[in-house]
Amino acid sequence: MIAAIIGLGTFGAKTAIRLYEKGAEVIAIDNCQELVIKIKDRVTHAICLDVTDERSLRSINIADVDVAVVAIGDNIEMSILSVAMLRKLGVGRVIARATNQLHEHVLREIGASEIIKVEEEMGEIIASKIVAPHVLQRYNFAAGYSLVELKLGKKFSGKTIAETQMRQEYSLNIISILKRVPLINEEGKATYKIKVNENPLPMDVIDAEDIVVLVGNEVNFNRLFAELTD
Questions:
Q1: Phi, psi of 84 (to 5 degrees)
Q2: How many whole angstroms separate alpha carbon 203 and alpha carbon 176?
Q3: pLDDT tens string 95-152
Q4: pLDDT tens by residue, 200-224
Q5: Across the strands, what pairs with 46?
Q6: Whole-model pTM?
Q7: Which domains does the chain have, with CATH numbers?
Q8: Cα atoms in the 13 Å half-sphere on the side-chain side of 196
Q9: Residue spans of alpha helices (H) in the chain
Q10: What are the residues facing 212 on neighbouring strands?
């Protein structure tokens, strides 16, 4: 995959670096030389140019990328012009950051494939951590549905998957269990490794410190969270 990240502020830079770490070919673009220099050793290519300049974008073959992420958040006009230019030059998939409802509306109208609302999504993450502090990770993959990593704790400790009645009582499915396995390292010190049970069976036992991965409806997750905090 070839991805272009436009705008190398905190959000854009983090996106670029993580994509590169995951094996993507990443072209990081900004009109600030300092930001480009800062990231150049952590992506495939880092380029300083004005993304509203059609000739400059054509010179780097921007139309060849699989996806472009317009991560600009502090300059709405530049964000809109960037999306418009990318669409004009034939980039098929353009993901754009929106900072408010009007910004989102305009981005959709000019052809953005997907919209990211960072502030709104961060608010959701923070609220979830407050309401359900035992949740380690939460991924929303469809409207109303999530994949959640959490520790079920003492309430379910020592029970088999069947005994938790997770499917019957909460309509949630356990799809994986991560266990800490104690071991002694080469230096003779006690440590542990993570063993992933990616196909758990009904008779598999859940311990208090296990990380359990569940999938299901958010309404049902909220019922489970309420009982875990009791």
A1: -60, -40
A2: 13
A3: 999 988 899 999 999 999 999 887 766 666 666 666 666 777 777 776 778 888 888 8
A4: 999 999 988 899 999 999 888 888 8
A5: 28
A6: 0.62
A7: 2-118 (3.40.50.720), 128-228 (3.30.70.1450)
A8: 5
A9: 10-21, 33-39, 54-59, 76-88, 101-109, 118-131, 161-164, 166-170, 218-228
A10: 150, 177
